[in-house]
Amino acid sequence: MAKKRYVNTLELRNLGFSEDLIQAALNMEKKGLFDVEPSADLVEITVEACRDLFPVAKKKPALFKRLLNKVFCKR
Questions:
Q1: CA distances (Å), 15 to each of 2, 25, 48, in order?
Q2: Domain encompassing residue 16
Q3: What is the total count of domains within the chain?
Q4: In whole angstroms, what is the distance from residue 43 CA to residue 27 CA?
Q5: Which of 1, 12, 15, 70 is most buried, by the most CB atoms less than 10 A from its CB?
């Protein structure tokens, strides 16, 4: 059985996300939206969409992917 992903609230806070956004992510987790492993294409699309929001995504895309994996951890 695949490990379920969960929202790492500490990492989100450390990255500067607001409590409202963190709560929204937790609500999505409760609804099971992170139960399925995202496709590589979806990860690439997400990283591309975030490039303007997070300077590290633009400068160091590999580092940003690792950050995403820390935020949405597997149990």
A1: 27, 14, 18
A2: 5-74
A3: 1
A4: 21
A5: 12
Q: What pLDDT, on a 0 to 100 scale, did the predictor assign at position 2? A: 62
Per-residue model confidence as pLDDT tens digits over 54-74? 776 677 777 777 777 777 766
Q: Which amino acid is at 41?
A: D
> Which residues does 35 contact at the CB level (< 8 Å), separation at least 6?
4, 5
pLDDT for position 1: 54
Burial of 61 (0-12, 13-18, 19+ CB in 10 A): middle
